[in-house]
Write a structure and sequence with these properties.
105 residues; mainly alpha; elongated
């Protein structure tokens, strides 16, 4: 059975370039550092989102009392920082916890 690289010169060329790339220790190190930086940024964004969600839960609790776990779960599942910022602003404007929850959708 023929492999996909036997029939497609572009894929064969890409594999050859990857082989050359990973044979170079400096390029491998740069790639490792780049990947670590990406993971660090992802972790920082996740921590920031979790902190914002926690702040929103505290604001809702102070304003309306106990916050249902379903609302907390929805908030903590949001990773979009801009959306969390908009939701934090909406805590000021909503008239009830139900109004806030309707805006989570």
């Amino acid at each position: 059975m023929a492999s996909i690289t036997d029939n497609d010169p572009a894929i064969q060329q890409a594999f050859e370039q990857l082989d050359r790339f990973y044979a170079d220790p400096e390029l491998r190190e740069l790639d490792r550092q780049r990947r670590l930086a990406i993971f660090d940024q992802m972790a920082a964004n996740a921590a920031k989102a979790e902190g914002k969600a926690g702040t929103i839960v505290r604001q809702l609790t102070k304003r309306f009392g106990a916050v249902p776990s379903s609302v907390e779960e929805k908030l903590y599942s949001i990773s979009d920082i801009d959306k969390l910022d908009r939701l934090a602003d909406s805590v000021i404007d909503c008239q009830s916890l139900q109004d806030f929850e309707n805006g989570l959708v």
